[in-house]
Amino acid sequence: MVAGEASGDQLGAHLIAALRARRPGLRFAGIGGPRMAAQGFDAHVSMDQLAVRGYTEALRHYRRITRIRRELGDALVAERPGLFIGVDASDFNLDLERRLKDAGVPAVHYVSPSVWAWRGWRVKRVARSATHLLAMFPFEPALYERTGLPVTYVGHPLADVIPLQVNKDEARAQLRLPARKLIVALLPGSRRSELEYMAAAFVLAAHRLRQDIPEVHFVCPMASRETRDLFETTVHVHGRTDLPLTLLFGHSHEALAAADLALVASGTATLEAALFKTPMVIAYRQSFLSWALQRRMMYLPYVGMPNILAGEALVPELLQGKATPAALAAALLDLLRDTAAQRRQVEKFREFHVLLRQNTAEKAADAVLGVLDAGRA
Known about the structure:
51% of the residues lie in helices and 15% in strands. The chain is α/β, with parallel strands linked by helices. α5 (90-102) packs across α6 (122-129).
């Protein structure tokens, strides 16, 4: 198995647990993170080695990442495992899957690349590389029909883990947040490269919002000590140590459950916020070169999964140059004052939750074992 970032680590951990429950003798190894390791996964390489964001960052680490993939591929071709599972990280995994598939090792790709948003030509590449695809969104299987690639819609595991209804008061008490203030969750990203582009805008947007809404408290969950330190440094550099802020290490779900509103960097966190029924504003910034290249290949008008699922601009998106502190603060203030827009977001979020709640780990495990058994026959 190979997972390249925190969301993939979580997906991999759920799948390993479901597979072990069915067949305790299975062994798992490759590249993964702490959640997979907690399920008995043997990580030969830390997934942090693969955690880069955008084209320019990928180019900077290209040689190292290519060497890791080549060496892992050599080892797997020699060892011939019963099955390979690439968990997301398609830029790394698809080439590895193709090599293994050609060598007779079945390859399951878990999480379709976002072929529906950009780089549509990758449909054929995925079909050429994988033996089977596990899709998390209901519109994805139809995209692969003409390729002949077997696809199983398994839903999204976050929809299984996150309850359909949450108790906001309990979440606030758990995090020791003020009970009677407006709580705004800030989620500027889970990787250092994301914080480098987003942290200052989020901090300064929070400061501007506080000028209009004095009775506000911010909660910011960080995925690692490194990103937490970087966010704290940003707060100090911009002289905003007076900001009413609870900075957390982890606990993103609790923060979203407790929040009245959220400012979220585009990515998995937008889906998490939706599943917690938290009205949000989506922001996205990266290097100019990465953004320019990506915009040339995008053919959907949205980057946030809530908007892609809705097929409309349900959630405000402020992208690249538009994601200024003033604009972000104004978007949050507009959403706060527009209770009808908040209700509409929440109603749609409930629909998404039911749609994606498919007992994902069990469905994925069934599909994986089917491929494994077919390969042994």
